[in-house]
Amino acid sequence: MAGLVRGIQAAGVLSVVSEHLSRSIPVPLRLDISFYDAYNNSSSDHAFDILSRHAARCESLSLTVCQEQSMSHFLHQLQSRTAVLSSLKHLNFGYGPDDISLAVLVRGAKLRTLNALALDLSWSNFRPCNFSSLQELHIFGLRGAPLGRFLECMPSLDSLELGSLTSGFTLDKAATELADSPVRPSNLRHLRIRSDEDCPAEAWRTLCVPHLTSLRIYFAEYPKSSVEEISSCFFRSRTVLQKLNLPAHFDNEEVLDFVRSQPSIDELTLEYYKSRSEGTVSLKDVLSYLTLSQLEDPQNTALVPNLRRLIIEIFYPDYSFQTLPTLARDISEMVKSRASAGDRPPGDAGLQAFHLDFFAQDCVQDLFSEIRVLLAPLVTSGLQLRLDTC
After folding, report:
1. Which DSSP string do the residues of 52-114 spell out, in sequence order?
2. DSSP label at 303?
3. In terms of domain of life, where is this protein from (predicted)?
4. Cis peptide before 26, with omega less than 30 degrees from 0?
5. For the segment 166-204, what is each residue's pLDDT rounded down to a tens digit?
6. pTM of structure
7. Is residue 147 within 8 Å of 168, Cβ to Cβ?
């Protein structure tokens, strides 16, 4: 009886939905579909009938699929009705299906944005898709071909977020014939990679990113060869980087050399974690690197000499609570060295905004109070100061 009642209720709801969709023709649709069960009944058949009649109007689709069987059933129902999402521009997967399903789902569409951070997309299933209009891509991995090859097929791509860089080194058969041909420059401007794996050097060798302005990277380790390869990629591409976000618990000089090699950076975000590894820089070292000395030529020796906006996020600091005044002084002296206009060339405004996010609770308000007192004159002069806890 309960199933019959639910079926009657679903039929009533679907009738209203069908009527509404018919009246709204030809307005583009934005659909949010949650598909939890793979069962087949009259209600689900009716729902797919409605969807197939209006599939060509769908411009935005958010799809949540919790079972592989559910995804297969969903695609089978669309294909059996020859429903094509030809107007689809924005696709979001709440749970990523396999990459074969993606190729079926987006056939005939010209996506502009794709969000599938649980999906590892292979070259063989990527190639049949038309991603020439794709502008924004969030995906776990791109495998079976070098990253540069994927970017060649996405000439409109402006922003890319990846969860892994280690899956593209075993070439699919379809990609081997392209292995030795030169890679065309990409139009990519924003690249974000956050992975719990090491940073592989091979991933950067096929990249040509002359238009890249924003880079956000996080890896478990930064081998010397990988950092050198990133630097070579940017030098080869003549990249003029403006925004950089990276963790500050590096343990080699190559990371510092890479930052020094990008004097065009005007916005820097550093994520600091206290590391147990020997040789990694301390928080005091990081602040020292960022502090401009009056005796040095900032254009030649300082990190990011043209910095306008600095964000430091401190997770698990290595200062004890007895040394918070010292931390407040070190932070304030660093900010003063970059924001004070007295010794700067004409027209160089120096640091204009400083944000400190402190992921700790004990005594942090005392730290913030001390920093506010020490930087009060600069705030009066126009420095944007934000101090937050999380």
Report:
1. HHHGGGEEEEEEEE--HHHHHHHHHHHHHTT---TT--EEEESS---HHHHHHHTTT---SEE
2. S
3. Eukaryota
4. yes
5. 655 555 555 555 555 678 899 999 999 887 666 777 888
6. 0.85
7. yes
